Automatic annotation (TrEMBL):
Name of this chain's protein: Ectonucleoside triphosphate diphosphohydrolase 1
A single BP term in Gene Ontology: nucleoside diphosphate catabolic process
UniProt GO cellular component terms: caveola
Keywords: ATP-binding, Calcium, Disulfide bond, Glycoprotein, Hydrolase, Magnesium, Membrane, Nucleotide-binding, Transmembrane, Transmembrane helix
Length: 375
């Protein structure tokens, strides 16, 4: 919707109107429809996963009683959509750019959060950018693309390719109107093509991710969801903790498989998704490594998450939690003792009381022989 608004604002408003009309006639308490910002998308995704992972709830009475109790840290959020991608995490460093800085007070604790949303770096728009940046200069109607499995073919047109605002600046009238993309299935060449959409030459801050965007040093664990999960799940890389090299090896193997073989093995997966797993795998590695700065050492800090406790990881739950004030800024007043400690103390004092009474009774009781007058 953010892209549509850029290319055709009237159409974007018509979509919103249609959504409004439909939801107004539903039994829900409809409060309006709007296009959220990329920053909101990052923030709500971060709230969702930390809420579902129980990272916000810190029972202060338990914390006081157990000196070695590990303080719950939040997890960073990595979201990959079709049009945009977001990175959000708590940072102890100075956030040099205001646009990337968020402050939350949740359950009585302050969080300084870094977030950035890269529009045009969702996996569909990144594929489009990659194609445009690597178009051959010749007027050939066949384009060989290493990011598709060998034997794969797809028809496209210049008007379709340049229809997105992410690439319209490169639009050219040269070249064929219609063309065919033919896969050559080469992971290393694909990765080189993908790298061309990341600009790391300028940085107006002390440190950047890419395209001149500020990013502090990566901090803590990360949960990666949406398309990060869909793609890694297909490649069977979500359950086991594979090293970065093993992950690259798995994607390389997939890219080198002939398309016929892939299609026969996975007849039920949508052709659009299936045909793009080689590109998507190479893109995810490049985004995480070259873009955000993950490496062989901190790769283990990333978990690929589909559902957490039965709920989808994504921005929508976080949005709802915020709108309905389900996460209060302050901790609800807690009793001085936790329930467990209270019950424990009650049992202890009851036993102690019985013990005292028993001791008194035994101490004041006359021996039986004395009672009967026998010495
Ligand atoms: N099973 C799957 N395998 C591969 N890709 C998938 C699968 N299911 C969905 N996708 C793709 O993953 C991407 C992310 O989907 P999602 O619905 O999270 O994002 P979106 O709403 O399109 O993103 P954005 O926030 O950028 O608009 C989309 O490009 C979607 O087509």
């Amino acid at each position: 919707m953010r892209l549509l608004r850029m290319s055709n604002n009237t159409l974007a408003n018509e979509v919103l109107l249609s959504v409004e009309n439909t939801l107004r006639s539903s039994p829900f308490d409809f409060q309006g429809a709007r296009i959220i910002t990329g920053q909101d998308e990052g923030a709500y995704g971060w709230i969702t996963i930390n809420y579902l992972l129980n990272n916000f709830v810190q029972d202060s009475s338990v914390l006081n009683l157990l000196p070695n109790f590990r303080k719950v840290e939040t997890s960073g959020a990595l979201d990959l959509g079709g049009a945009s991608t977001q990175i959000t995490f708590v940072s102890n460093e100075d956030i040099e750019s205001q646009d990337n800085s968020l402050h939350f007070r949740l359950y009585g604790k302050n969080y300084n959060v870094y977030t950035h949303s890269f529009l045009c770096y969702g996996k569909d728009q990144a594929l489009r950018q990659q194609l445009v940046k690597n178009l051959p200069s010749t007027e050939n109607s066949t384009i060989f693309d290493p990011c598709f499995n060998s034997g794969y073919r797809r028809n496209s047109s210049i008007s379709e390719l340049y229809s997105s605002p992410c690439v319209s600046e490169y639009s050219t009238l040269d070249g064929p109107i219609n063309f065919e993309i033919k896969g050559t299935g080469n992971y290393h060449l694909c990765k080189a093509n993908v790298q061309s959409i990341f600009n790391r030459t300028h940085c107006p801050y002390s440190q950047c991710s890419f395209n001149g965007v500020f990013q502090p040093v990566l901090q803590g664990k990360f949960g990666a969801f949406s398309a990060f999960y869909f793609v890694m799940d297909f490649l069977k890389l979500t359950q086991e903790k594979a090293t970065l090299d093993e992950v690259k090896e798995r994607i390389q193997q997939h890219c080198s498989r002939p398309w016929d073989e892939v299609k026969t093995e996975f007849p039920k997966i949508k052709v659009k998704y299936l045909s793009e797993y080689c590109f998507s795998g190479a893109y995810i590695i490049t985004l995480l490594e070259l873009g955000y700065g993950f490496n062989a050492d901190n790769w283990k800090d990333i978990s690929f998450l589909g559902k957490i406790s039965g709920s989808d990881a994504g921005w929508t739950l976080g949005y709802m939690l915020n709108l309905t004030n389900m996460i209060p800024a302050e901790l609800p007043p807690s009793p001085p003792l936790s329930h467990g400690v209270y019950v424990g103390l009650m049992v202890f004092f009851s036993i102690f009381l019985v013990f005292i009474m028993l001791t008194c009774w035994l101490g004041h009781r006359k021996p039986r022989c004395l009672q009967k007058g026998i010495i």
